[in-house]
Each structure stands twice: as structure tokens, then as C-alpha cells.
Write a structure and sequence with these properties.
By secondary structure, the protein is of the alpha+beta class. It contains six helices and three strands, in the order αβαααββαα. It has helices at 3-24, 42-45, 49-58, 65-71, 108-113, 115-119; strands at residues 32-36, 82-86, 89-93. The longest helix has 22 residues, at 3-24. The relative contact order is 0.13.
């Protein structure tokens, strides 16, 4: 029963990414958080009573507020970032790409034969927002 909730969370990331691009020329910084705090939704989503009791005690929703205040402050110069915020912890989340496998005549068989390259994130990079018509370096032949 969490599919729509998860889809909405990913939509927030997509919205943040495009707003960061559109806001950049106006000096507007846009970030998002992935907050975790115990709410009334937890008992419906989690069956483990011990975990529920522990998370209720250690993950107050109020612990997310300092990150929000920092992101809205003049001391924050970051944009286009995702932060996990929970129980007094803030961590950056990054969506990364590995070097992948490049074959101008890509086939299901060549993918299967080179899947280790497809799967690898060794030497990963974080793709930035692309300008319209810009081709990411990994897509170039």
C-alpha cells in the first residue's frame, strides 16, 4: 500500500531538479529533503511493534526542522541536492551514474555479455541537469 506514496516522493525529486535549473538564473536555490519521523502513518506501514516503539522514541518529526531552517537560510549555498533527515542526522543523497557500457549497435545479447559494466558504479559521477538538447557525455559515441 505504499506505491503511490513512493511515487509522490520521487516526483518531488524531479520537481526539485527542474526548479533548480529554472531558478538558477534568478539566484534561487532549490533543494529537497527526504524526512523521516514517526507519524501516525507508521503503524499502518510497519508490522514490527518493537521497531514502531523504538522509532516513536528516537525519530520525532521535530528533529527534521533544523535542516529545513538551514536550507532556507543565507548560510546554505547548495542547490539541486537531496538530503535525508532523521533522528538528528542529515545526509546527502546522490543519484549517480557509472561509466556503463557503450555500443552503437546495442542488443539484448551485448547487454547481457557486458552486464558487469552496465551494473558498475566504479568511477561514478553525478549527472547534473542538462540544458535542452544537451547530450550527456556517456551517451556520446
Amino acid at each position: 500500500g505504499q506505491a503511490t506514496y513512493a511515487a509522490a516522493k520521487c516526483a518531488v525529486v524531479g520537481l526539485m531538479r527542474i526548479l533548480a535549473v529554472e531558478g538558477a538564473e534568478h539566484g534561487i536555490l532549490v533543494n529537497t529533503i527526504s524526512p523521516a519521523g514517526y507519524t501516525r502513518m507508521h503503524p499502518a506501514a510497519v508490522a514490527d511493534p518493537a521497531w514502531l516503539k523504538q522509532s516513536e522514541a528516537t525519530m520525532p518529526v521535530e528533529a527534521v526542522a533544523p535542516a529545513i531552517v538551514w536550507l532556507a537560510s543565507d548560510s546554505c549555498s547548495e542547490t539541486n541536492r537531496i538530503y535525508n533527515v532523521e533522528a538528528g542526522v542529515i545526509q546527502r543523497i546522490a543519484i549517480v551514474m557509472g561509466p556503463g557500457f557503450n555500443d552503437s549497435h546495442l542488443t539484448p545479447e551485448s547487454i547481457a555479455e557486458n552486464y558487469a559494466k552496465v551494473e558498475s558504479i566504479e568511477g561514478f559521477f553525478e549527472p547534473g541537469p542538462f540544458e535542452p538538447g544537451q547530450i550527456p557525455a556517456t551517451a556520446k559515441s
